[in-house]
Amino acid sequence: MENHYKQLTLPERYQIQSPCGLLFSARRIGDYLHRSNKTISLDLKRCPPGAYDAEAAHRNSQQRRKTATKFHKRADSVSRQVKSQMRPDR
Description:
mainly alpha, 5 helices
């Protein structure tokens, strides 16, 4: 059985923000949202303690996704060879 990771959505982050203000644990919030407590905990740790903001967390998440390095299975030597062959000879 494979685990398929799904990013937290903005509505889910709003649902994290409310109980977070009531000092619920990441495990309890995760149970409520049917998400891993590790996912909730990591999202909470990315914000200042006691100041979780759903919109700011979502913006930061989107920015991290845009700037993340992508994993490629091909070797660097193959990539260099392909790029050099794609260049025009002019």
